[in-house]
Write a structure and sequence with these properties.
Order of helices and strands: EHHEEEEEEEEHEEEEHHEEHHEEEHEHE
CATH superfamily: Periplasmic binding protein-like II
Helix content: 10-25%
Number of strands: 20
Distance between the termini: 33 Å
Number of helices: 9
């Protein structure tokens, strides 16, 4: 759960829009784009710093988009059994039988693949107050910024990764749907071959193009077994990645997957291929992306400082000038630092800490954890050992038999 200093809660409400009160809670990376609340700790950075530099490139203005999902395809439900109706006459009148009505036509169940498509763009709020600094206290520092080591965890590397790279897609906790950000759409007709479209005129902060070739380069790196990428499982769902044109990719999966967009939302970070190749291991601490911020300096286990990207494709966002992230592992120390006014935003997953923060004037912005992409049924035990109950589900599921273990019960 994130708590915002009550002194800037009104302005924070402009961007902290995911407010579901569900435990446990996680940080919302997108929150750091729209904020305009001033303040911060005001402390100077330590001497032992890693400084990054980027060359800005002009990108077209735009706005963030909202999308809807469409489900296509169908499976047929079992037909209803025909019934017989009789009418009994009084006393000695013979019983007559009416003609048997035809069975109703089977109903179609909407159980196709989830297509992600764009919706009209949304204009920024009229009461935005730009400028200022946000200081955010999180649980721990991250390993680095190479997409191969990022997990997109809401309480860990999700926020800094989002700020530097932006995201292709994200899973919106308000409705559970996958929505495009830098991407424009992800569609299929058969759940095996998918077409992904990108928004035009987006560039990395080194001036190179954020295009289909850049996405292919990054995803093929995640598939490289030598890198042992933390999100390799999602990337390895794809058998082939073909560039159709600068803004279009054809993604062919190893097997049908109707909920593939949910897996794609777990590999959303795309770094500049030129910078990755040029910097090598140095990309870990000197990343180049196309996000709303650039990394100015990083004192490991001390603080990260991000500054506004003036050429962000979704201008006029971000509205805040600077974001400082400080990792504080000790829960009590992190909560006390926030209560003492040393930060504007703090993360906690502990209910007692959340109650303490609310009592001290913190404004909660809860969010849900990412859900899983699989549902397992034990078909050896009731009720799912019944063939009648094991009919195909109206949800887009794939099946796989898993060997029984000692804890399968």
């Amino acid at each position: 759960m994130n708590f915002v200093d009550s002194r800037c809660s009104d302005r924070a409400g402009q961007w902290m829009h995911r407010r579901r009160r569900v435990w446990p809670a996680v940080v919302i990376a997108g929150a750091l784009i729209g904020t305009a609340c001033g303040g911060g700790s005001g402390k100077k950075a330590a001497d032992n710093v890693t400084t990054t530099s980027t060359t800005s490139a002009v990108a077209d203005e735009g706005t963030t988009t909202t999308v809807g999902t469409a489900q296509t395809g169908a499976t047929v439900a079992p037909g209803a059994l025909a019934s017989t109706t009789t009418t009994a006459a009084k006393k000695s009148t013979a019983t007559t039988r009416k003609p048997i009505a035809a069975a109703p036509a089977p109903k179609a169940i909407n159980a196709g693949a989830t297509n992600v498509t764009s919706a009209p763009t949304t204009a920024p709020a009229a009461d935005v107050q730009p400028g200022g600094t946000i200081t955010y206290l999180k649980v721990a520092d991250i390993t680095g910024f190479d997409p191969s080591v990022l997990t997109y965890g809401g309480s860990s590397d999700g926020p800094p990764g989002y700020m530097v790279f932006d995201v292709l897609f994200y899973n919106d906790p308000k409705d559970g749907l996958v929505k495009p950000q830098v991407a424009d759409s992800l569609t299929t007709n058969d759940a095996t071959t998918w077409t992904m479209k990108l928004k035009p005129n987006i560039r990395f902060t080194d001036g190179t193009a954020y295009d289909a070739n850049a996405v292919k380069f990054n995803w093929q790196r995640l598939q490289d077994p030598k890198l042992a990428a933390k999100t390799a499982a999602s990337a390895n769902l794809m058998q082939s990645i073909d560039v159709i044109d600068p803004l279009t990719l054809r993604l062919t999966l190893k097997q049908k997957n109707a909920v593939f967009p949910y897996s794609v939302s777990q590999i959303p970070f795309i770094g500049s291929p030129a910078a990755i190749q040029q910097k090598g291991d140095g990309f870990m601490s000197d990343p180049v992306g196309a996000g709303p911020f650039t990394l100015k300096q990083w004192v490991r286990n001390g603080s990260m400082t991000f500054v506004r990207n003036p050429n962000y494709w979704a201008a006029p966002r971000p509205y805040v000038d600077q974001v400082i992230i400080k990792p504080i592992t000790d829960e009590a120390q992190r909560i006390n630092s926030f209560a003492a006014g040393e930060a504007n935003l703090v993360f906690t997953g502990v209910p007692d800490s959340a109650a303490q923060l609310q009592k001290s004037g913190g404004v909660p912005y809860p969010s849900i954890l990412n859900g899983g992409k699989q549902i397992a049924f034990n078909v050896r035990k009731a009720p799912f050992n019944d063939a009648e109950r094991a009919r195909p589900s109206p949800w887009p599921l794939t099946t796989r038999t898993t060997p029984r273990s000692s804890s399968a019960d």
